[in-house]
Amino acid sequence: MTLVGKKAPLFSAPAVINGEEIVSDFSLEQFIGKNEVVFFFYPKDFTFVCPTEILAFQEKLAEFEKRGVKVIGASTDTEETHLAWLCTSKDNGGIEGVTYPLVADVAKTIAANFGVLAGDWDYTEEGQLTFAGAPIAFRGTFLIDKEGVVRHETVNDFPLGRNIDEMIRLVDALQYVEKHGEVCPANWEEGKEAMQATKEGVAEYLSNH
Protein backbone atom coordinates (compact mmCIF):
# COMPACT_ATOMS: atom_id res chain seq x y z
CA MET A 1 0.00 0.00 0.00
CA THR A 2 1.50 3.32 -1.07
CA LEU A 3 1.46 6.40 1.15
CA VAL A 4 1.59 8.77 -1.81
CA GLY A 5 -1.22 11.29 -1.56
CA LYS A 6 -1.80 10.47 2.11
CA LYS A 7 -0.68 12.14 5.31
CA ALA A 8 2.68 10.86 6.49
CA PRO A 9 2.42 8.86 9.73
CA LEU A 10 3.48 11.11 12.59
CA PHE A 11 5.76 9.92 15.37
CA SER A 12 7.74 10.98 18.38
CA ALA A 13 10.92 9.00 18.97
CA PRO A 14 14.50 9.30 20.22
CA ALA A 15 17.00 10.72 17.74
CA VAL A 16 20.51 12.06 17.48
CA ILE A 17 20.65 15.64 16.21
CA ASN A 18 23.63 17.73 15.10
CA GLY A 19 25.71 14.57 15.12
CA GLU A 20 26.18 14.65 18.87
CA GLU A 21 23.04 15.25 20.92
CA ILE A 22 20.44 12.65 21.88
CA VAL A 23 16.86 13.92 22.21
CA SER A 24 14.03 11.74 23.48
CA ASP A 25 11.09 13.23 21.58
CA PHE A 26 12.07 14.08 18.02
CA SER A 27 8.91 14.63 16.00
CA LEU A 28 8.06 14.84 12.31
CA GLU A 29 5.16 17.10 13.24
CA GLN A 30 7.50 20.01 14.04
CA PHE A 31 8.09 20.57 10.31
CA ILE A 32 4.47 20.58 9.14
CA GLY A 33 3.53 23.99 7.76
CA LYS A 34 7.19 24.99 7.55
CA ASN A 35 9.33 22.65 5.46
CA GLU A 36 9.28 19.85 2.97
CA VAL A 37 11.01 16.77 4.36
CA VAL A 38 13.05 14.00 2.79
CA PHE A 39 12.62 11.14 5.26
CA PHE A 40 14.63 8.02 4.55
CA PHE A 41 15.06 4.64 6.18
CA TYR A 42 18.20 2.53 6.07
CA PRO A 43 18.64 -1.04 7.37
CA LYS A 44 21.36 -0.94 10.03
CA ASP A 45 24.15 1.07 11.60
CA PHE A 46 27.74 -0.13 11.16
CA THR A 47 27.03 -1.79 7.81
CA PHE A 48 28.22 -1.28 4.24
CA VAL A 49 25.87 0.40 1.76
CA CYS A 50 24.22 2.46 4.51
CA PRO A 51 27.18 4.77 5.29
CA THR A 52 27.63 5.57 1.59
CA GLU A 53 24.02 6.78 1.42
CA ILE A 54 24.07 8.64 4.73
CA LEU A 55 27.29 10.44 3.82
CA ALA A 56 25.98 11.17 0.31
CA PHE A 57 22.95 12.91 1.85
CA GLN A 58 25.34 14.90 4.05
CA GLU A 59 27.44 15.92 1.02
CA LYS A 60 24.29 17.29 -0.64
CA LEU A 61 22.77 18.69 2.54
CA ALA A 62 23.41 22.31 1.53
CA GLU A 63 21.45 21.70 -1.70
CA PHE A 64 18.45 20.49 0.29
CA GLU A 65 18.76 23.27 2.85
CA LYS A 66 18.83 26.07 0.28
CA ARG A 67 15.53 24.67 -1.00
CA GLY A 68 14.13 24.76 2.55
CA VAL A 69 14.03 20.96 2.78
CA LYS A 70 14.84 19.00 5.93
CA VAL A 71 16.65 15.66 5.63
CA ILE A 72 15.96 13.01 8.28
CA GLY A 73 17.28 9.46 8.45
CA ALA A 74 15.97 6.53 10.48
CA SER A 75 16.73 2.91 11.27
CA THR A 76 15.64 0.40 13.89
CA ASP A 77 18.91 0.79 15.82
CA THR A 78 19.03 2.55 19.20
CA GLU A 79 19.94 6.19 19.61
CA GLU A 80 23.08 5.11 21.49
CA THR A 81 24.18 3.03 18.49
CA HIS A 82 23.48 5.98 16.19
CA LEU A 83 25.65 8.18 18.37
CA ALA A 84 28.47 5.65 18.48
CA TRP A 85 28.43 5.41 14.67
CA LEU A 86 28.36 9.20 14.34
CA CYS A 87 31.44 9.34 16.57
CA THR A 88 33.30 6.81 14.41
CA SER A 89 35.59 8.14 11.68
CA LYS A 90 34.95 7.42 8.03
CA ASP A 91 38.27 5.57 7.88
CA ASN A 92 36.84 3.09 10.36
CA GLY A 93 33.47 2.70 8.64
CA GLY A 94 31.75 5.47 10.57
CA ILE A 95 29.66 8.48 9.59
CA GLU A 96 31.43 11.20 11.54
CA GLY A 97 30.43 14.65 10.30
CA VAL A 98 26.76 13.90 9.61
CA THR A 99 24.64 16.69 11.11
CA TYR A 100 21.03 15.94 10.12
CA PRO A 101 18.81 13.94 12.53
CA LEU A 102 18.95 10.16 12.76
CA VAL A 103 15.82 8.68 14.34
CA ALA A 104 15.92 5.54 16.48
CA ASP A 105 12.92 3.36 15.61
CA VAL A 106 13.66 0.68 18.20
CA ALA A 107 10.02 -0.38 18.49
CA LYS A 108 9.92 -0.73 14.68
CA THR A 109 6.56 1.03 14.62
CA ILE A 110 7.70 3.92 12.42
CA ALA A 111 9.07 1.58 9.76
CA ALA A 112 5.90 -0.50 9.98
CA ASN A 113 3.64 2.54 9.65
CA PHE A 114 5.60 3.73 6.61
CA GLY A 115 5.37 0.26 5.07
CA VAL A 116 9.10 -0.43 4.89
CA LEU A 117 9.64 -2.99 7.67
CA ALA A 118 11.16 -6.03 5.97
CA GLY A 119 8.96 -8.57 7.70
CA ASP A 120 5.99 -8.93 10.01
CA TRP A 121 4.89 -10.43 13.31
CA ASP A 122 2.94 -13.67 13.50
CA TYR A 123 1.94 -16.32 16.03
CA THR A 124 2.88 -19.99 16.17
CA GLU A 125 0.31 -22.71 16.74
CA GLU A 126 1.33 -22.59 20.39
CA GLY A 127 0.42 -18.89 20.55
CA GLN A 128 3.99 -17.66 20.70
CA LEU A 129 4.85 -14.40 18.95
CA THR A 130 7.34 -14.77 16.07
CA PHE A 131 8.73 -12.55 13.35
CA ALA A 132 8.90 -13.62 9.71
CA GLY A 133 11.44 -11.81 7.57
CA ALA A 134 14.07 -9.28 8.62
CA PRO A 135 13.19 -7.00 11.57
CA ILE A 136 14.87 -4.02 9.95
CA ALA A 137 13.84 -1.40 7.40
CA PHE A 138 14.19 -1.51 3.64
CA ARG A 139 15.75 1.54 1.99
CA GLY A 140 12.55 3.60 1.89
CA THR A 141 12.64 7.26 0.84
CA PHE A 142 9.72 9.65 1.26
CA LEU A 143 9.27 13.22 0.03
CA ILE A 144 6.76 14.92 2.33
CA ASP A 145 5.31 18.34 1.49
CA LYS A 146 4.69 21.23 3.87
CA GLU A 147 1.20 19.99 4.60
CA GLY A 148 2.55 16.64 5.76
CA VAL A 149 1.41 14.77 2.64
CA VAL A 150 3.65 12.16 1.02
CA ARG A 151 4.27 13.20 -2.59
CA HIS A 152 6.85 10.58 -3.56
CA GLU A 153 8.12 7.28 -2.21
CA THR A 154 10.58 4.65 -3.32
CA VAL A 155 11.58 1.45 -1.54
CA ASN A 156 14.83 -0.33 -2.38
CA ASP A 157 15.88 -3.79 -1.28
CA PHE A 158 18.91 -4.03 1.00
CA PRO A 159 21.69 -4.26 -1.65
CA LEU A 160 20.43 -1.36 -3.79
CA GLY A 161 21.70 2.10 -2.88
CA ARG A 162 19.80 5.30 -3.61
CA ASN A 163 20.51 8.16 -6.02
CA ILE A 164 20.62 11.32 -3.92
CA ASP A 165 20.68 13.62 -6.96
CA GLU A 166 17.33 12.14 -8.01
CA MET A 167 15.85 13.24 -4.70
CA ILE A 168 17.03 16.80 -5.35
CA ARG A 169 15.45 16.64 -8.82
CA LEU A 170 12.16 15.51 -7.29
CA VAL A 171 12.28 18.32 -4.74
CA ASP A 172 12.83 20.79 -7.59
CA ALA A 173 9.91 19.28 -9.51
CA LEU A 174 7.56 19.45 -6.53
CA GLN A 175 8.49 23.04 -5.76
CA TYR A 176 8.15 24.03 -9.43
CA VAL A 177 4.70 22.46 -9.69
CA GLU A 178 3.51 24.18 -6.52
CA LYS A 179 4.89 27.56 -7.61
CA HIS A 180 3.86 27.57 -11.28
CA GLY A 181 0.91 25.19 -11.47
CA GLU A 182 2.45 23.33 -14.41
CA VAL A 183 3.45 19.67 -14.51
CA CYS A 184 6.91 18.22 -15.04
CA PRO A 185 7.38 15.73 -17.90
CA ALA A 186 9.82 12.82 -18.11
CA ASN A 187 13.42 13.63 -17.22
CA TRP A 188 12.52 17.20 -16.24
CA GLU A 189 15.25 19.12 -14.45
CA GLU A 190 15.44 22.62 -13.03
CA GLY A 191 15.67 25.08 -15.90
CA LYS A 192 13.95 22.84 -18.42
CA GLU A 193 10.53 23.43 -19.93
CA ALA A 194 7.46 22.16 -18.10
CA MET A 195 3.95 21.99 -19.53
CA GLN A 196 0.29 22.67 -18.89
CA ALA A 197 -1.79 19.66 -17.83
CA THR A 198 -4.08 19.93 -20.84
CA LYS A 199 -4.25 18.21 -24.24
CA GLU A 200 -3.07 21.43 -25.83
CA GLY A 201 -0.22 21.72 -23.35
CA VAL A 202 0.93 18.17 -24.01
CA ALA A 203 0.70 18.67 -27.77
CA GLU A 204 2.72 21.86 -27.61
CA TYR A 205 5.38 20.25 -25.44
CA LEU A 206 5.69 17.17 -27.65
CA SER A 207 5.87 19.26 -30.80
CA ASN A 208 8.81 21.15 -29.33
CA HIS A 209 10.64 17.97 -28.37
TrEMBL record:
<dbReference type="Pfam" id="PF10417">
    <property type="entry name" value="1-cysPrx_C"/>
</dbReference>
<dbReference type="InterPro" id="IPR019479">
    <property type="entry name" value="Peroxiredoxin_C"/>
</dbReference>
<protein>
    <recommendedName>
        <fullName>Thioredoxin peroxidase</fullName>
    </recommendedName>
</protein>
<comment type="function">
    <text>Thiol-specific peroxidase that catalyzes the reduction of hydrogen peroxide and organic hydroperoxides to water and alcohols, respectively. Plays a role in cell protection against oxidative stress by detoxifying peroxides.</text>
</comment>
<keyword id="KW-0560">Oxidoreductase</keyword>
<dbReference type="GO" id="GO:0045454">
    <property type="term" value="P:cell redox homeostasis"/>
</dbReference>
<keyword id="KW-0676">Redox-active center</keyword>
<dbReference type="InterPro" id="IPR036249">
    <property type="entry name" value="Thioredoxin-like_sf"/>
</dbReference>
<comment type="similarity">
    <text>Belongs to the peroxiredoxin family. AhpC/Prx1 subfamily.</text>
</comment>
<dbReference type="GO" id="GO:0033554">
    <property type="term" value="P:cellular response to stress"/>
</dbReference>
<dbReference type="InterPro" id="IPR024706">
    <property type="entry name" value="Peroxiredoxin_AhpC-typ"/>
</dbReference>
<feature type="domain" description="Thioredoxin">
    <location>
        <begin position="2"/>
        <end position="176"/>
    </location>
</feature>
<dbReference type="GO" id="GO:0005829">
    <property type="term" value="C:cytosol"/>
</dbReference>
<dbReference type="Pfam" id="PF00578">
    <property type="entry name" value="AhpC-TSA"/>
</dbReference>
<keyword id="KW-1015">Disulfide bond</keyword>
<dbReference type="GO" id="GO:0042744">
    <property type="term" value="P:hydrogen peroxide catabolic process"/>
</dbReference>
<keyword id="KW-0963">Cytoplasm</keyword>
<keyword id="KW-0575">Peroxidase</keyword>
<dbReference type="InterPro" id="IPR013766">
    <property type="entry name" value="Thioredoxin_domain"/>
</dbReference>
<dbReference type="GO" id="GO:0006979">
    <property type="term" value="P:response to oxidative stress"/>
</dbReference>
<feature type="active site" description="Cysteine sulfenic acid (-SOH) intermediate; for peroxidase activity">
    <location>
        <position position="50"/>
    </location>
</feature>
<dbReference type="InterPro" id="IPR000866">
    <property type="entry name" value="AhpC/TSA"/>
</dbReference>
<dbReference type="InterPro" id="IPR050217">
    <property type="entry name" value="Peroxiredoxin"/>
</dbReference>
<dbReference type="GO" id="GO:0008379">
    <property type="term" value="F:thioredoxin peroxidase activity"/>
</dbReference>
